[in-house]
Amino acid sequence: MSLTDELALLQTQTLGAIEASQSVAELEAVRIAVLGKQGTLTGYLRSMGQVAPEMRAEVGKTVNTVRVVIEEALASAKQTLEAKELSERMLASSVDISMPGRAQQIGTRHLINRISDEISEIFLGLGYRVAQGPEVETDYYNFTALNAPEDHPSRGMQDTFYVKDLSGDKSGVRGESDVLLRTQTSGVQVHVMEGQQPPIYIVAPGKVYRRDVADPSHLPQFTQMEGLAIDKGLTFGDLKGTLDYFCKAMFGPDRKTRFRAHYFPFTEPSAEVDVSCGICHGEGCRFCKGTGWLEILGCGMVDPNVLRMSGIDPEEYSGFAFGVGIERVACLKYNVPDLRMLLDGDMRFLRQF
Fold first, then answer.
1. Among candidates 296, 131, 133, 126, which has minimal Cα distance to 203?
2. d(CA 132, CA 254)
3. What is the spatial distance between Cα 46 and Cα 31, in angstroms, rounded to a whole number?
4. Cα–Cα distance between 177 and 339 in angstroms, integer?
């Protein structure tokens, strides 16, 4: 068989392989096998030096003709196969508008934020206003201005997150200029009292930080709502009436409250407030540990020293303060047994509220 016959046969076989290709990948394999560096037709071009001189012109012309025919066939087939594959991909990814749509979950405010807003709304209705303050405080506003003794345990590094020690004292005694993450929003009331003369009626919601290990009843970061009222003639009776109203507005008109004597550095007298258990209605159950009562907040009459340090005359004005944990209120209102469930981000749990 002559070279021209071999080239004609190669052209016929290659065109057949091109026509039989079902994908661009298969077509590329044919191109490489024939026109690649090690391809069949390339081999003929490389062996032209071995062709008899009188046959080179004819063989060279035939090789070029075969190459042009094959390249044109490859280009045409590639265009057809690419269009086919594009159509198949579009068909596979198309949306069937006759299918029912997927229901989208509508987001809602987190339960902690909702409870915070609900408490704020209750006190706004009583004439209070919402005040804000820095989460990074100094020792003075977090402790000293609130009448906390220098040796009070809460000032220790085992209870408070100190950001920077500015006192230079390495004895372990904290200085008033030390910077810390606030352990309570009570410092906001000091800022307000320093910048505003009575009457003062505020609530101060915000994040607070303590060196607690997370467990069902404690969190190292939680949300607190501090309340403060300063005016002429305020008494403990006003405090009791305000908090009793708050508990009934938050938990229901059938809930009862009781006040137990307690101690806080910045209030005197001080008390802890309990609300009757909503599960057993005061009869005693596992949730309230058989007592019929659930602790809800701490409160008391503002200590005269706190008023005096903020530039308010305690002989002319009196006031009361209270602090409540938002997460605790949420758990008590909805009978959630573990504070950590509020922060886990489990949508199955959060969508219940």
1. 131
2. 32
3. 17
4. 33
pLDDT at residue 168, as a whole number: 53
Contact 274, 255 (CB under 8 A): no
**Amino acid sitting at position 10:** L
Rounded CA separation 343/1 (Å): 84
The confidence band for 167, taking pLDDT boundaries of 50, 70 and 90, is low
Of residues 196 and 55, more confidence is placed in 196
pTM (2 decimals)? 0.66
Please say if the pLDDT value at position 166 is more than 60. no
- Asked whether the beta carbons of 226 and 191 are under 8 A apart, the reply is no
What residues does 325 pair with on adjacent strands? 224
DSSP state of 54: H
The ranges assigned to domains in the chain are 3-93, 111-350
The CA-atom distances, in angstroms, between 270 and each of 261, 265, 321 are: 6, 9, 9
Pick the CATH number of 111-350 from 3.40.50.970, 3.30.360.10, 2.60.40.1180, 3.30.930.10: 3.30.930.10
- Burial of residue 217 (CB within 10 Å: 0-12, 13-18, 19+) is middle
CB–CB of 324/270 below 8 Å? no
- Residue among 127, 138, 144, 269 at smallest CA distance from 202: 127
Summarize the confidence of residues 143-161 as an average pLDDT: 79
Encode pLDDT of 119-133 as tens digits.
999 999 999 999 999
| Distance, CA of 107 to CA of 85 (rounded, Å) | 40
Which residue do the tokens 């749990």 mark?
349
The strand pairing partners of 231, in sequence order, are: 318
Strands (E), 232-349: 257-264, 267-276, 293-302, 318-325
Contact status, residue 63 vs residue 41, Cβ threshold 8 Å: yes
- pLDDT (tens digit, 9 = 90+) per residue, 109-122? 888 999 999 999 99
